[in-house]
Amino acid sequence: xxxxxxxxxxxxxxxxxxxxxxxxxxxxxxxxxxxxxxxxxxxxxxxxxxxxxxxxxxxxxxxxxxxxxxxxxxxxxxxxxxxxxxxxxxxxxxxxxxxxxxxxxxxxxxxxxxxxxxxxxxxxxxxxxxxxxxxxxxxxxxxxxxxxxxxxxxxxxxxxxxxxxxxxxxxxxxxxxxxxxxxxxxxxxxxxxxxxxxxxxxxxxxxxxxxxxxxxxxxxxxxxxxxxxxxxxxxxxxxxxxxxxxxxxxxxxxxxxxxxxxxxxxxxxxxxxxxxxxxxxxxxxxxxxxxxxxxxxxxxxxxxxxxxxxxxxxx
Length: 315
Hints:
Layout (H helix, E strand, L loop, with lengths): L1 E4 L4 H18 L38 H14 L4 E5 L5 E10 L2 E9 L8 H12 L5 E6 L3 H9 L3 E11 L13 E2 L5 H12 L6 H8 L1 E7 L2 E7 L5 E6 L2 H13 L6 E7 L4 H9 L3 E11 L7 E2 L6
Parallel strand pairs: 4-5
Antiparallel strand pairs: 1-2, 2-3, 3-4, 5-12, 6-11, 6-12, 7-8, 8-9, 9-10, 10-13
Helix pairs in contact: 1-2, 7-8
């Protein structure tokens, strides 16, 4: 087995995108038909379906948005070249991929996927070890983990605490939601310093350059007054991409605003809610969303940030 860095190229980004896409589909019980995983560095694609060792909720490709998915992969390959890797077998075929990032002393794993034929052969372990080696100087670590039992075992063995997570999803009934209790504005790059400051307070490290990507592709709502501040990114498909606030009151205000902003009939989803995010559970249930359990948030050197909803792609 050979580990190769993911290059900041369209070819490598498409290879990782297809690996992630197939893994994401498999982890959600989707059709297990074959998916060619276009090979980096001019190698032949593999026709085999993928089963994930771990796929972050939302770190897989955006449905119908392959260009945006490739842009995110290239973003991480560019900002964190030491954290992005592809594993190839003896014939040069890619059999797994992983991407991780470091932001101000906080390490996060954005993706780890392995072909089924390569599982049990140390591929996932090698990829995880290489990405963790990249973050060895970091005091804090965070991973979004699927329900897959191998994933939970792998991350616990690596020293992470497993915090069971919940998910909200469904169509918002706006008539059941109370109006936000304060002003919320549509944000812009002008709020970048505010968002970084909130990040540092909650997770020990700002998202920094990741905000540049997020601002290009998602709406962001910002709340800021004398009592505190916060922000919330919302995808066009109704998923809350990332929310961070200095108080539950501001977090509730932001999540309520985001859900009420969705066009009628749009399905909303909120992922990776630990038990510390009861405020989000309350908002979601009030809006008529369904609550289910969904994997784990894995943490090392930190408690679950709160009030906080992590980003699947940037944690």
